[in-house]
Predict the structure.
Amino acid sequence: MRYSIGQAARKTGLTTHTLRYYEKEGLLPFVKKSGSGLRVFSDGDIGWLEMIECLKGTGMPLKGIKQYIDWFIEGDSTLPQRLEMFQKQKKNLEEQIALLQKHMAKIDYKIRLYAKAVELGSLEKARIDKGLQKEQQKIYGADSFSTSEDAKQTTR
Amino acid sequence: MRYSIGQAARKTGLTTHTLRYYEKEGLLPFVKKSGSGLRVFSDGDIGWLEMIECLKGTGMPLKGIKQYIDWFIEGDSTLPQRLEMFQKQKKNLEEQIALLQKHMAKIDYKIRLYAKAVELGSLEKARIDKGLQKEQQKIYGADSFSTSEDAKQTTR
DNA sequence: ATAATCTTTAGAGTTAACTTTAAGTCAAGA
DNA sequence: TCTTGACTTAAAGTTAACTCTAAAGATTAT
């Protein structure tokens, strides 16, 4: 299948502006032009865009993605670099997910705290609630009870 | 405990510039000043910074974080808004993690592909490898075999 | 006491990734 | 044919979140 830039934009969820910007940045070296100068996207190009979204979505800057594409164009002599790049990206991603899960624990605690606070009509009362205090210590550790900013505001 | 801006920076992993910038943006309304005008950070302020890092790290812009702080200052009348904010942030975060795990599957596939390619000295040969083709179909679905950009480059 | 280090301010500069604008050219339907 | 909407380029503008600079005042170690 062949797609105009507008069709490619709809298929990928990007804008036509963004697609032209990516091309200018060297991220779409395989996109062809029609006789009258219009861009023609192939399914292969859509596939590249999906890989670009994957790498961008896992925190790689466009420059890094361009490096991968340049290695691809260079051919099999750059296979080790590309493998290493994906291995590094996997490690990054594992760390990202682990960090997000820590953040999730914090947010879950806040939801329980604020649910209780809404129930009681007071953040102070919710904080004093024994059940929540216990749970908080489980999450942050007994020593770092004071790392909850809501709790600490009482100490000022 | 009390901390200078430099000590607070070391404790949080931020720079002193960033801490001043956050204060200017209204994110640190509880930080006090010494008689001679130096900032004095309390453990409570460090706790706020940890919460800021959590919200920032889960994709909330500084403006959204400031809104939360403004609600906190406003007091118990804004408890429902704050609860709703954390609930939305949790939902966001669940979606983020789910997306990252999709990306992880793609990257894992690429690692297997490139490991085979390095072994065989050729991306083309690795692609033809039956085991990998089968696995690829499992990940992307049989219809979307052509969504691998490495595979699709052969069709140009 | 004095040198080295830290902190202060206001404001300018940077970076990545778009996003918009302007001034046109191209293609498809009534 | 006319009009409507999609497309073209080059270049300027935007946004978020820093990041740096300069010049001066404050703190700490010897």
